[in-house]
Write a structure and sequence with these properties.
Elements (H helix, E strand, L loop, with lengths): L19 E3 L5 E10 L4 E6 L12 E7 L4 H12 L2 H11 L9 E9 L2 E9 L1 E4 H7 L6 H20 L2 E2 L8 E4 L6 E3 L6 E2 L26 H4 L6 H17 L11 H13 L3 H6 L7 H11 L9 H13 L13 H12 L11 H11 L11 H6 L25 H24 L3 H7 L18
Antiparallel strand pairs: 1-2, 2-3, 3-4, 4-6, 5-6, 7-9, 8-11, 9-10
Helix pairs in contact: 4-6, 4-10, 6-9, 9-10, 10-14
Catalytic activity: L-threonyl-[protein] + ATP = O-phospho-L-threonyl-[protein] + ADP + H(+); L-seryl-[protein] + ATP = O-phospho-L-seryl-[protein] + ADP + H(+)
Protein name: Serine/threonine-protein kinase VRK2
Keywords: ATP-binding, Cytoplasm, Endoplasmic reticulum, Kinase, Membrane, Mitochondrion, Nucleotide-binding, Nucleus, Phosphoprotein, Serine/threonine-protein kinase, Transferase, Transmembrane, Transmembrane helix
Length: about 450
């Protein structure tokens, strides 16, 4: 059972350097110097070599909290249930990916010191966190780097979600580069992780104002602001906000972080007015296209709907195509590169809306005459069971697809997979387009009369 005062705690009294800890598997670990601390725990260097002092280049760390504290308990349960190394290796082979951004868990246990009980967890050592790097880069990342980070986090989140968990607190401070492989990025700190689908039963949508505004206020989802339990779409929404901050340097609500309701209102407005709200937020306009499209697809998810991860990933990979950057290639963090990216983007300001090519107009007219569904079917009852629907602006014009192949497959198999992803993307985006309301169409294109609307929704029915 989790501690009764879960989520509340204080930093523990530091353990002495050189103390020997034994985990539940009987392995022993020697404690080195303290190298950091979190909200409730301390982090030490560690080594399985107990006969010698722990060196400064040790590749293990131990996270220590008081036994009654809750976050480390939640984190520990995540690793024990969902992050077994053999499962991660099988997943990587299945998905043909080179790295999955989940730190290696080595063990855990309990110990006592000066009459106090401690819980500890042994992990692989990680490098610098992205928040520090972001600040060193003038609070702006290169566009290619943002898209790389987003695509890699999608890989990580897909694995986490498939194992019945959501992270709930994605942000630069919780993204760390590898210690021995600094071109890999890892999602750490699972203290707010949540088992959204225990034994295959998804939690029900239910707003609870008493639990509202949970998580990190800058990035937490609209659902979390309403006190709804974390979900897959919430994780993806948080990731979208992170990418928007990394690319633009700030978020529209950062001046109101002490007022959670104002932040919630600003996020709701941004999501309601996609894609233009995102496109117009940055002075560069066009550089936010992939993020606007990404968030619009996330916005179209029902609370308990499984996301189309490959569709979302393809949106980001398409943005990397022109630069020839591989999403699993080296990450570039430099103030000069970020500044150069900002100047180049600013020089290419875009005035929205832009006229559509004739072929796109014809395609949209065809779409308006059909009853398109979102990524999955929904019922009228689901509309009534959850939050009031919000309205969605027209979706971004679709770009030409890109094929990124990380495995050696036959051309026919590759083409079939590409076609499937493209079809899912078209279905998702066309479903969003079909839910534009009469009022929005009239405001954007006064020459069009709207007599009927097949569906009216902000988020798809739950």
């Amino acid at each position: 059972m989790p501690p009764k005062d879960r989520g509340r705690g204080k930093l523990p009294v530091p353990l002495p350097r050189g103390v020997i800890l034994k985990d539940t598997e009987g392995k022993v670990w020697r404690l080195g110097s303290q190298i950091g601390q979190g909200g409730f725990g301390l982090i030490y260097l560690a080594s399985p070599q107990t006969h010698a002092p722990v060196e400064d280049d040790a590749v293990h760390v131990i996270k220590v909290e008081y036994l009654e504290n809750g976050p480390l308990f939640s984190e520990l349960k995540f690793y024990q249930r969902a992050a077994k190394q053999e499962h991660i290796r099988k997943w990587m082979n299945l998905k043909k990916i080179r790295c999955l951004g989940i730190p290696v868990f080595w063990g855990s246990g309990l110990t006592e010191y000066k009459g106090k009980s401690y819980r500890f967890m042994v992990m692989e050592r990680l490098g610098e966190d992205l928040q520090r790097i972001f600040e060193d880069c003038g609070s702006r990342f290169k566009k290619e780097t943002v898209l790389q980070l987003g695509a890699r986090m999608l890989d990580t989140l897909e694995y986490i979600h498939e194992n019945e968990y959501v992270h709930g607190d994605i942000k630069a401070a919780n993204l760390l580069l590898g210690y021995t492989n600094p071109h890999e990025v890892y999602l750490a700190d699972y203290g707010l992780s949540y088992r959204y689908c225990p034994n295959g039963n998804h939690k029900q949508y239910q707003e609870n104002p008493k639990k509202g505004h949970n998580g990190t206020i800058e990035f937490t989802s609209v659902d979390a602001h309403k006190g709804v339990a974390p979900s897959r779409r919430g994780d993806l929404e948080i990731l979208g906000y992170c990418m928007l901050q990394w690319l633009c340097g700030k978020l529209p609500w950062e001046q109101n972080l002490k007022d959670p309701v104002a932040v919630q209102t600003a996020k709701t407005k941004l999501m309601d007015e996609l894609p233009y709200s995102v496109m117009e937020w940055d002075s560069s306009g066009s550089s936010c296209g992939e993020i606007a499209k990404f968030l619009a697809c996330v916005y179209g998810l029902a609370y308990d709907e499984k996301p189309k991860y490959q569709v979302l990933k393809k949106i980001l990979l398409d943005g990397l195509e022109s630069s020839g950057t591989r999403y699993d290639g080296p990450l570039e963090f430099s103030a000069a590169a970020c500044a150069q990216n900002h100047c180049a983007a600013t020089a290419s300001k875009v005035c929205l809306p832009r006229p559509m090519p004739k072929t796109v107009q014809q395609k949209q007219k065809k779409m308006e005459g059909e009853d398109y569904k979102a990524c999955t079917g929904v019922t009228g009852k689901q509309f009534q069971d959850e939050e009031k629907p919000r309205k969605l602006s027209r979706m971004l014009h679709q770009t030409e697809p890109q094929q990124v192949c990380l495995q050696k497959s036959s051309p026919k198999a590759v083409q079939q997979k590409q076609n499937k992803v493209e079809e899912e993307e078209r279905n998702c985006l066309s479903g969003l387009h079909a839910r534009v309301t009469c009022r929005q169409v009239q405001a954007e294109e006064k020459t069009i009369k709207c007599y009927t609307v097949t569906q009216e929704a902000d988020r798809p029915p739950k």
